[in-house]
Specification:
15 strands; four-stranded antiparallel sheet; elongated; mainly beta
Length: about 180
């Protein structure tokens, strides 16, 4: 079915239809010496972004998102929920907020020895006061910034808008620790 706006035909008092186009709902008609122009405002398409945060009084939950085709978990439950199990929420702790009143809901991944994510890898959403991991075996990316006010989560700002790809890069010999990239 087409739900684009359309033009209405005008009727005069005699009942005969006027064949000139008339503006209707969502349309703009321009008539000048060059001719007629009809503009139609089409509705924007919606897109359900992965990892969209939903802030509650003391917790945060996320819409379904994937990392290399694997779904992260909160408390060992997939972030979109499981069969018969509701969508999990990450409990927020005001102690995790930094001096500026900010904390982050982060995704932590722990790849296998080859640096590849598998179904057995740890992909978990956690709260942290630092969006960067200092552990060379754990990759971390911030999913949402949580702003605190009066020891309560006030607002959550999404940071990630698309599904993620993960890549671990090993350093050249003697150059330091592995680096974790989320694309």
């Amino acid at each position: 079915m087409n739900n684009l706006p359309y033009l209405f035909a005008a009727e005069d008092t005699s009942g005969a239809h006027d064949l000139r186009p008339q503006p209707g709902r969502g349309t703009r008609l321009t008539i000048n010496s060059l001719g007629q122009c009809v503009s139609v405002a089409t509705p924007a398409a919606s897109f359900a972004h992965p990892f969209t945060p939903s802030l509650a009084t003391k917790s945060i939950s996320f819409s379904k998102g994937l990392v290399d085709s694997f779904e992260p978990t909160i408390k060992k439950i997939p972030i979109s929920g499981a069969d018969g199990v509701p969508q999990p929420a990450l409990l927020l702790d005001p102690k995790n907020a930094n001096a500026n009143g900010e904390s982050w809901a982060c995704l932590e991944v722990e790849p296998n020895d080859q640096g590849v994510l598998t179904k057995d890898s740890r992909l978990e959403v956690v709260e942290s006061n630092n969006p960067v991991s200092i552990d060379p075996k754990v990759g971390r990316v911030a999913l949402a910034l949580i702003v605190w006010r009066n020891q309560r989560p006030y607002r959550a700002f999404p940071i990630v808008y698309f599904n993620l790809r993960y890549q671990r890069v090993l350093p050249a010999a003697g150059d330091g620790a592995a680096r974790h990239f989320f694309l």
